[in-house]
Amino acid sequence: MWEIRCRDEFGFGFKAGRQAERIYRFFLKHVTRLMGSRHRRPDEVRRRAARHLKVLSERYPAQLDRIRGLSRALGIDDLDLVCASLFASSLPGTGCTNFAAVPPATRDGKVYVSWNFDLSPLFRLLLGRIPLYVRDIPDTKPYVCMGLPVLFGIGVMNGDGLCSCVNSVGAMDGGEGLTFFELNNLAMETCSTVEEAVEVWRHNPREVVPGLAAAIIMNANSILADASGNAVVIEHSHNFMAVERASDHGGVLASANHHQFLDRALSGGADPRKEPLIAGSFARLARMWELLEMFRGSIDLNVIRIITTDHGLNYSTLEEFGIKKDPYEERVDDATICCHPWNVFRHLRRLELLEAMLELNIAMTLNNLVMDPLRCTVYVTPGRPCRKLPVPLWVGDALRMEWADRARKEIDYRPERGVRTVSRRSGIFRRPHQTRSSEAFRSLVIRAFAALDRLLAASLSEGG
């Protein structure tokens, strides 16, 4: 993993920009192209970014300092960085099926948070295969984060054992505030328990961009669990919020890409009758709850692997919308926990080219992450969990976890001696060194991604 240790927030942004300058410039260049292809007016985008900077100065000045540090390192105006970050957060995507398991649901008394990370495989060009890094700044809690430092990232475990994962979700109840990336980071830097984290969401304005297609990644459900065995799901729109606790469900919680506890009449959440692509989320969530109920009381790492590699179907939650499918019929797109584009060739045989491209763009599990805070470990599967084995990453020393010495005696693998700082792009993001041919190939793929993105947005908009 990449470790970024700095004396202050400005230095964090500056150091990240200097160590990964090529990937930042690559990202910013192609985001600018995507903005043009989506016909976003520069003046409107900049006005929104200026308002967001004001929100940061009032609610999250540490993030503003990081942006300024990155701006200095890259020689790019901080307003342009915020424009790119906000736009990148609003790219369509409908993936991820997650759960938390805490005592009494776990066989070994441990706390687990699992994240099946589903996005277009083209995102690997930007994020890499295992895009994790450690953030360590004095006066804040160190934590492991997934994403690109400063611009977007989700903290998955901090030094006090608070763990998190997210699901993208669409909502129509919109407004400006802190993005879910920023709410997550603020909680990871300052909180030790899920109750403290809930207050971060409750007492800050929540940025939600209205629209099921325009900004589904900008909006998210969050699962949080702490080392003491508490877990919650937070579902929110700009004006409304719902919190559900694992203690009310026997120690388990599940989440997918729609609101199950927050009234969708208030949030403007998706309806599978109007938005067919969201039907898979309802099926995945029903199957996840089915498996959690089946294994309640015996959940451990082996059972988690059974759940995260599952290809079973459960359409029970779709029946209330008048959608009835026989298990032996053609599957609903994006309907399995371990996601595959099952129907892409069927779409092609019927000359349904748009449907085939859409399924390729959304129905793909890129990684699985399992956070195990009491063992100071993050297990990462670098690919579909049904085809790849998890890689255990020891984070007890990097996060200065108080129980790290005790946890070392419980793990069944040999941790590395320490977190190694890597400054080469190929080491951090698992990408080859830049060549003329590789840059030309990446440009072609990014253009293909832009076309798929436009088709997905148009399809979802027409469906609404």
Topology at a glance:
Layout: E1 2-5, H1 9-19, H2 21-37, H3 42-59, H4 61-74, H5 78-89, E2 97-101, E3 112-118, H6 124-127, E4 132-136, E5 143-148, E6 152-158, E7 163-168, H7 180-190, H8 194-202, E8 220-225, E9 231-236, E10 241-245, E11 252-255, H9 264-267, H10 279-295, H11 301-308, H12 344-349, H13 353-362, E12 365-372, E13 377-381, E14 391-394, H14 404-408, H15 425-429, H16 436-463
Parallel strand pairs: 1-4
Antiparallel strand pairs: 2-3, 2-11, 3-12, 4-5, 5-6, 7-8, 8-9, 9-10, 12-13, 13-14
Helix pairs in contact: 1-4, 2-5, 3-4, 3-5, 7-8, 13-16
State mean pLDDT (0 to 100 scale).
86
Strands of the biggest beta sheet: in what spatial order?
Answer: 11-2-3-12-13-14
The CATH class designation is Alpha Beta
| CATH fold name | Penicillin V Acylase, Chain A
Q: Low-confidence spans: pLDDT under 50, at least 5 residues?
A: 418-432
What's the structural domain tally?
Answer: 1
CATH superfamily: Penicillin V Acylase, Chain A
H-E string: EHHHHHEEHEEEEHHEEEEHHHHHEEEHHH
Give the N-to-C terminal Cα separation. Answer: 42 Å
Please tell me the CATH architecture by its name: 4-Layer Sandwich
